[in-house]
Each structure stands twice: as structure tokens, then as C-alpha cells.
Amino acid sequence: MEAQISAVCQFCETSREINWRCLNCDLFLCRICNSRIHSKIMSSAEHKIIHLDQCGTEETVNNMRKLDLKQMKCKTHPDKTCFVFCKNCNQPICSSCILNIHQNHTFCEIDDVYEEKLADIENLKVEIKSNIALMTNEETLLQEYELKGKKHHMEIRTLILNREEEIKQEIARKSKDVSDELVSEWHNTEQSINSDIELCLKTKSDLLKRKDNIYQTLRSHDPRLVFDEGLTDVKQLHQPMFCKRASLFQFFPKTIEAKGLLGDLIEKPIIENITVYPIDMKCISCINHCEAEKVLICNNSEDILKKEDLNYDRFQTLKTLQDIRVMDISQTKDGHAILCVGDDLKILTKTGQLKTFLHLDFVTLCVHVNNENELFVGALVKDPDRWRRELGIVLVLDEQGNTTCAFDKRKIVNDSDNYYIPGYYDDSFDEDEEVDMFDYPSRVLNTKKDDILIIDSSNLSTFAGKVVLLNRLGDIVQEYNGCRCENCNDFNFCPFDIAETHSNLFLVSDIGKHSIHVLGATLKILTCSFVDDVGIDKPLSLCTDAAGKLWIGCDMSADDDEEPKIYCITFN
């Protein structure tokens, strides 16, 4: 209550039953004075009378402000009352202000501006209240994340410390094994040396005795002693059979690569949201995001290509091309689609026109366009020098279609001990040779770090194969041949499609296990069952859009009852 209630009625000054207050007069009234006296005063007809229970409420405060508005003094002329509002200066003014300062300005009723500003303040109050609720909710979520993060941090730290202890124990075991081996070998060597020392001492003793006998013979006048001396036995004593020891054992410490020895901290992608779009194509062998919710999809076993707008209750087909076998699709910077069709790279423009971009002398299998509009093409070419009819090749083309680089063979280096190349070993070669680098490069991707990631299929009936990571020089940086965990023992690794996330992780669809593998930058496995627990069955084709969302096309051709779908995954 803003004003202290009077002890008695301020009209009659006798009654203590104060129930009313006149906001205009700023007087406390009893019931009788309010009804019989104050109400009969002519000037009080428009006065605002409130019950004492209403004092201090927001409505009462607003009413009092409106009354004070009528008496609001001018800041420039304190003896004057403001009665209009200057829109040019955005302030209430008095009559003197109009004559002196605000000539030719635009004015409006002060009551109207007051109501507008009061409404704005009310809206601001509602917005602030909503933001406070939002911040309270965010605070709660952040506190939960902090607790979860702290728990997760401790769990990871425990794993790191346990791994450190395992490595220490493994090193200690290995050190003991090597030390025991050294002790055993030295024991054998020492025994052999001691045996030879004993033999050497015995031989020396025998020789000394024979020496004395020879001296006696030479000093003697008896010729018979000369004939009796055994010269053959003496020669044998000069040639004892000692063990040959060219050198002792040496210890060659191995270089320890600290990086990766303990493990790596890698941010595993967390699924935040999954959007499901029904579609009428049972097997989506290739998917490419165009814009918004528009995608290009194809089924190369049925020779059909479609452009779909998924932003409908079902979907809307924008374009269909029949009798065209598209092996792969990629997007140029200006929004056109590059298609692998037989011996050609074709362009499907944004307006739907299909044109041949480049005719090649080999069968195109896959294509990828990077941010500089370079084209990376996987293909099969004829191999005239070998018994195989075809070999896999990866080409790099500029945007005019000129070949700037090609990867098709790699060397087997003979270093006299073995024949080694990263990812390849064969001891049947007698000299430096070249071997085919790829069998069937079915997907290619230029990574954000400017390496080249390739899916190479070695068995076209099962799609069994591997993932190969090359640098720009064509050197094999790493290969991934599938997960070796217990859950993958019964499945061949059959990589079909690849995509890269914004955090430089590689996603590989595996049609052998019907799952998606998540690989680190050096093809280290993070998980081999990325979508198994979120209801995505039989993922086949993959692509990521500019926002980092993952689009998945599935293969439902073997299940007549299952409705085909496209999934869009948003990562946290």
C-alpha cells in the first residue's frame, strides 16, 4: 500500500471504519462519508474511488499514474503542466514550449501517446517474462549438461588412466620378456664361453707338458727320443675347436609414436533430430541434396532418375528420367548436377535440361565436385598390358574437363628383405614392380583436408571392399577394411557410399552389416553401428548438405511390406 492509511476518516474526522480512498483527493473515507458527502460534491463526479483492498494493485497504480499525468510538470518550465506530446522531440511539453522551442513541430494528445507507450511497456514486460522463463529453462538444461559433462569427463579420464596403466603393464611385461630372453641367451653364451675357457686351459696345459718333453728331447744325446716324439699329436693340440662368436646381442629400441598410442579424443556425432520422408523408390542407390528439401535420387538397377520435393505431406515429383543408368551424382557450385552415365559425364541443369558435359573413353563409376569445381572421377579403363580386361582409375579434372591428375598404379618396392607398400604386401616379386591401385572405385570424395577418399570394391557380386585414403600425390595414407569387433565377425565389410561431416568425420554405409561406420580423419573406427538404434534400416546412399545435415537413402527392394523412406539427420 503506497500511502499510510489514516486512523480516522479524513472527511468527518471521527469514524475509524476506513474502507475507501479517493485517488483524486488522496483522502481516506469511511462508508458514510463516501456515500453521503463525497459523492454529493459536484466536482467529485469523475473522481476515482477504490476500496482499500485494491490499494497497491497494478490497476490502482495505473489509475494513479493517469491522474498524475494530468498534473505532470514540464521539465523546461517547472511551473507549467504538460498537456501535449511533441512527436519531433519525443517528449511531453507545455504551452510555453510550444511558443518558444517547438514551433512548427508535430503534436498529438498526451493521453494517446501515454497509452501507446504503456502498451509497449506491457508487451516488453511479457517478452521479458518469457525470456526469464527461457533463461531459467536454459539454466536448468546447462546445469544438467554440466553434471552430465562432468560425469562423462570423469568416465573418459578413467578410461585414459586405465589405458595408461594397461600400456605400462604391457610395456613392463614386454620389458620382462626381453630381459628374460637376454638373461637366457647370455646364460647359454656364458656357459659356452666357460666351456671354451676350460678347453683352452686344458689345451694350454697339455701344450706346456709337450713343450717340456720336446726341450728334454732336444737336450738329450739319445737319438731314440727324437724318433719317439709324436709330431702328429702336437699339430692336433694347436687346433682346438672353439665356438665362433662374431658379435654379442645388441638392443635396438623402437621409436614410439606418442600420437595415437593412448588413443584420440574425437567428437562423436550426436543425433539431434531425424526427419522421415516417405518416397516411392524402393532402392535409392544414389542421393544428392539440391536445395531446401529437394533431392535427386536414382535407382541404377531400374535405370530411373527423379527429382523430388519432399516439402509436402507425401512428396512431389518434379522431374523423372527413364532408361538412364546413373551411377553417381554430384553438385557443382552453381547448382547443376553432374551425372555418371556410361562413358559420359552429363549435366542436369537447375531448369531440368540434360546435356553431355564430357565424353570419355572409359566407363564412369563415380563423381565428386569440390568447392573449386574440380571433378574427381572413378572409372574403369581397358588394361592392354595385363591379363585383366579392365582396371580401376581415379581422375582429377578441371572445370573445363581437362585431366590434371590420374591415379591407377602403385609401386611395389624391393628393399631386399620384403616387398612393401602401404596396404599391400606380396613376397612373390623379385624386383620393383607396379600393381593396380584399384579394382572398382565406386565412390570418391575430396575431403575438407584435400585428401582423396575412395571406396574400392573387390567383389562386385557382394560389394565387399575397402576404403582407401590418398593424398594429392597419390600416396596411400591409410586403408580401412572394416571393423574387427565381435558384432562384425559374421559380416563382410561391403562399403557402398561415403560422406563427410562438418567435424571431419567420415560416414560409410555398409550393406553387408546394414549400418553406417563412423571413421576419424585417419580412418580410425569410432563406431560400426551408427544408426542401428534409431530405427534406420538398410541405409544405402549418403550425402551431406551445406548445413551439415546427413541425407540417407535406403534399400527396401527386398521387403515388399516396408514403405521406402528418406531420412534427414541433424547433428548436435
Walkthrough of the structure:
The protein is α+β, with helices and mostly antiparallel strands. Helix content is about 25%, strand content about 30%. It is elongated, with a radius of gyration of 47 Å.
At a glance:
This protein is α+β, with helices and mostly antiparallel strands and 572 residues long.
Q: What tags apply to this protein structure?
A:
alpha+beta; 6 helices; 4-stranded antiparallel β-sheet; 572 residues
Give the distance, in angstroms, between the N- and C-terminal Cα atoms.
Answer: 51 Å
Number of helices: 6
Percentage beta strand: 25-35%
Q: Estimate the mean pLDDT confidence.
A: 82
Q: Give the proportion of residues in helices.
A: 25-40%
Rg value: 47 Å
Structural class designation: alpha+beta
Low-confidence stretches: 413-431
Structural shape: elongated
| Strand order in the sheet with the most strands | 7-34-33-32
Largest sheet: 4 strands, antiparallel
Number of strands: 34
Give the SSE map.
Elements: E1 18-22, E2 27-30, H1 31-37, E3 49-51, H2 58-70, E4 84-86, E5 91-93, H3 95-100, E6 107-109, H4 110-219, H5 224-228, H6 231-237, E7 271-278, E8 286-291, E9 294-299, E10 304-309, E11 316-322, E12 329-331, E13 337-341, E14 344-348, E15 354-359, E16 363-369, E17 375-382, E18 390-397, E19 403-407, E20 409-414, E21 419-421, E22 424-425, E23 433-436, E24 441-446, E25 452-459, E26 464-470, E27 476-480, E28 495-500, E29 506-510, E30 515-519, E31 525-527, E32 539-544, E33 550-554, E34 565-571
Antiparallel strand pairs: 1-2, 1-3, 4-5, 4-6, 7-34, 8-9, 9-10, 10-11, 12-13, 13-14, 14-15, 16-17, 17-18, 18-19, 20-21, 20-23, 21-22, 24-25, 25-26, 26-27, 28-29, 29-30, 30-31, 32-33, 33-34
